[in-house]
Design goal:
Layout: H1 2-11, E1 26-27, H2 33-36, E2 44-47, H3 55-62, E3 66-69, E4 88-91, H4 98-108, E5 112-117, H5 125-133, E6 137-141, E7 147-149, E8 152-154, E9 161-166, E10 173-176
Parallel strand pairs: 2-3, 2-4, 4-5, 6-10
Antiparallel strand pairs: 1-7, 5-9, 6-9, 7-8
């Protein structure tokens, strides 16, 4: 019952008519490849913020993984939908919703890796408490990541991205070099 109440409280923030278009950025291959070293190829991955053409979906499939993808524009609201059988969750989520997304991920309890903005990660009491009380790891890169917006590569991101993971990496902090 508690799970249903928590999910009901989250749902209003991710309604189809409230999609924040500034959250729609797509990830280039080079920002995904370092993570693949930590993902066994026999796992089924849920990419809850991705469409079929997503680089996450493509590269995970090339890695030998089975991939279940879903996007709110396709009627698969992360706060209302969950596939039946999967091993872990990997995606680049909408940054504006990272608190309720993290709440749901920790509630689900499966391994996950999210490519997120590191800025302000511990800035709210709620996120601080979640991260203090749940297992997590961080993958840090040697430089900032460029993203795709409206089909164009946007160079010079104003923020640093990291993978915030749970039950994925071998140690609390992993440092990787990007090849782009």
């Amino acid at each position: 019952m508690l799970c249903a109440v928590i999910l009901e409280n989250m749902n209003h923030e991710f309604a189809q008519d409230k999609i924040n278009k500034s959250d729609e950025f797509y990830t280039l291959d080079y920002a995904i490849k370092p993570l693949l070293n930590y993902i066994p190829s026999d796992k089924t991955i849920w990419c809850p913020f991705d469409k079929e053409e997503s680089n996450f979906v493509k590269l995970l499939r090339e890695n030998g993984n089975t991939v279940i993808y879903g996007h709110i524009e396709e009627g698969k609201n992360f706060f209302e939908y969950e596939p039946q059988n999967y091993d872990m969750i990997i995606s680049n989520p909408p940054y504006s919703l990272r608190t309720p997304i993290l709440e749901r991920l920790f509630l689900i309890g499966k391994p996950f890796a999210l490519l997120i903005n590191e800025s302000g990660l511990f800035d709210t009491k709620k996120r601080y408490e979640m991260l203090k009380n749940n297992p997590f790891e961080i993958m840090v890169f040697d430089k900032r990541i460029n993203y795709i917006k409206d089909g164009v590569i946007k160079k010079g991101a104003t923020f640093k991205s990291i993978y915030l993971c749970s039950q994925i990496l071998d140690s609390k902090f992993v440092f990787e070099t990007l090849s782009a």
